[in-house]
Structures are given as structure tokens and as C-alpha cells.
Amino acid sequence: MPSSVMPTTTGAGGRTLPAAVSATGLRKSYGDKTVLDGIDLYIPAGSIFALLGPNGAGKTTTVRILSTLIDPDGGRAQVAGHDIATDPQAVRAAIGVTGQFSAVDGLLTGEENMLLMADLHHLPGREGRRVAAGLLERFGLAEAARKPAAAYSGGMRRRLDIAMTLVGGPRIIFLDEPTTGLDPRSRHTMWQIVRELVAGGVTVLLTTQYLEEADQLADRIAVLNDGRIAAEGTPEELKRLVPGGHIRLRFSDPSAYRSAASALRGADLPHGASRKGDAPADEALTLRIPSDGTQRELRSILDWLDSAGIEADELTVHTPDLDDVFFALTGGTDQSRKAVR
Ligand SMILES: Nc1ncnc2c1ncn2[C@@H]1O[C@H](COP(=O)(O)OP(=O)(O)OP(=O)(O)O)[C@@H](O)[C@H]1O
């Protein structure tokens, strides 16, 4: 395939989706330590893809390979339609990368940092100033633009870092742990920034140790563990991989609750739900019916509720959260669970 042709796949409705990033069989070892043991990735243009994994899983190594900072020992990858091995310059021209170690120079002001990037991208002076001012404004840094970046908070530095990445107008952005160490407010601001980037047509590959972050942002998630992709899919698909989903019925009338609970005990529900469905003794008057969360099962449970004359005041579907998935897939201990949160 010529290096300028983007690989494609057939998406929903038979549409052909161009890949912003595609990789097959990426391998990397340091000495006798295998860091990546054959990674395949497919990231459609205009989407957010999260590489989720514990410390040392190989996330940064993957980003460094895809951004041509290091060579893989094996496998192939294309970024923006360019082969990382044969056309690294074109790859670099198409991407922006912000890493765990930021490019921000603390001695320079925010504005000076931006203008330096504009210079690096050979923007003429006036155009450079216009782009810099626009991005500083967009990222809420206009007021602090004349202050040295060393005086910025962690969240401001991270925003400046992304603003600097955007000076060259990249169509694909790699964000390596963009919110590690940020407080909840700054993390939410960063999430909003990522969403806006993608709304503007940019493709984002982000690495994260935070399950909630992947859940909030990503169209698709790959769980990286021990140098391999343990599972890949939409957040909802991943959550369906592990048990723990249920339908919750809440009643306000205690007698309706009691009769529903007794009907449920004798019921023959899908998914073996009936016997376990008689929820905890419950002051909140709720019943839980185990469910895999699929449309088919939900429909049959609703049909059964109708036929049994059960009408709850509230019905909610609970899928297992990514915590459940992550620890099922990575075999994490309580110790690593703490480290990952
Ligand atoms: N240059 C190197 N030399 C030797 N080992 C390395 C090198 N770079 C990475 N490693 C090792 O490769 C493994 C994966 O590292 P990587 O930084 O890709 O993980 P990560 O998933 O990004 O983890 P973290 O969340 O801690 O950043 C680690 O065990 C690390 O020590």
C-alpha cells in the first residue's frame, strides 16, 4: 500500500472509515524485558481512543513508537496514512504530542512559550502572534500570558502544553497521561478541552491510568496489560465482559415492593436472574435483577414485569463499571487497585 493511502475499515452502515492510526504486531523489548508483545491498534479518524493500563504496561512506549521517537523491534504502523518507519517526517508533521514531561519552559512566559512554538513551525511573526493569542484565549490563559510559566498551577501548565501542541494545527494528537496529578476541577477542564478538540475533527489517542477518564472520554478503549492488549472495545462493550450488571427497580409503595419481591422469587427470568433477583432486604424498597445489559435481555425482563403486573416507580440499568473490567482483565491486586485509581 502506498504510504499516503490511509487504511480503512467498514464501519456501521457500511461506511468506510479512514484510520488515523493503525498498527499491527508492534513489539518492543529492552534487554530481556518484553515491553510490547505484539500490539494491534486501529483508531478511526475523528475519534478518541484510550490506551488504559497500569504503571509499566507499555502505554508511553506505544506513544513514543507511534510518534517516531523510538523504533519498534517489530511490527508496522501508519499514522495519518504515513508509515512510521519509511516516512517519519510526514508522521511528525501530522501529529502533536504532549507527554508526561511537558515542553513548557518555566523561565519563559506563557506567551513566549507559544511564540517559540510558532517560530518552530515557521509561522510568520504576525500570524504567529495571532495564533498564539487565539490559543491562549481559548485555553483560559490570556490573563496569565505575561507571567512566567513557572508561576502557573499544574492545570495551567498542562493547558499551556496542549495549546503549544496545537500551534502547528495537528490533525492527530497523542496525549500521554494528560491529567495525572491534576485536581478534579482541572481534570474536568482538560476533559472538556479534549472533547472540543475532537468536535473540531482532531483524532486523540490518550493514555491513562484512570478508568473514569477512559470511560468519560473514549469512543474506544484498549486495555494494555503485560505488553498485550487484554481487551478492546467501546466502554459499554468492555463493561459487558464482566458480570455485575443488573436492573434496579425502586418502589415507593411498600406493598407493591413486597408483592414484586415475592413474584420475583418464583420467576423464571433470563440469565438465571430469578433466584438471585430478590435483592437485599431493603429500606430503600429496591430490587435488583441480575442482567447482562443487552437489549434482548432487557426486553424479556420488561415483558416479564408487565405480565407479572409489576410497575416500579423507577427502573435503572446498571452495567459493571470499568473498575470491574480493568481488574478482571489485568488481574490487579488490591494494592495495584489503589495505585491505579
Ligand atoms: N528506555 C528504556 N530502557 C529500559 N526500560 C524501559 C525504557 N523505557 C521503558 N522501559 C520499561 O518499559 C516498561 C513500560 O514502560 P512505559 O513507560 O511504556 O509504561 P507505561 O504504561 O507508560 O507506564 P506509566 O503509567 O508508569 O508511565 C517499564 O517497565 C519501563 O521500565
UniProtKB/TrEMBL annotation:
Membrane-spanning ranges: none
Kindly give the Pfam families that the UniProt entry links to this protein.
ABC_tran
Q: What PROSITE patterns is this protein classified in?
A: ABC_TRANSPORTER_1, ABC_TRANSPORTER_2
Q: Where in the cell is it found?
A: Cell membrane
For this UniProt entry, the molecular function terms from Gene Ontology, in alphabetical order, are: ATP binding
The question of whether Transit peptide is a record keyword is answered with no
Residue limits of the ABC transporter domain? 21-251
Q: How does it sit in the membrane?
A: Peripheral membrane protein
Kindly state which keywords UniProt assigns to this record, in alphabetical order.
Answer: Antibiotic resistance, ATP-binding, Cell membrane, Membrane, Nucleotide-binding, Translocase, Transport
Q: Which family does it belong to?
A: Belongs to the ABC transporter superfamily. Drug exporter-1 (DrugE1) (TC 3.A.1.105) family.
Write down what this protein is called. Answer: Daunorubicin resistance protein DrrA family ABC transporter ATP-binding protein
Q: Which organism is it from?
A: Streptomyces glaucosporus
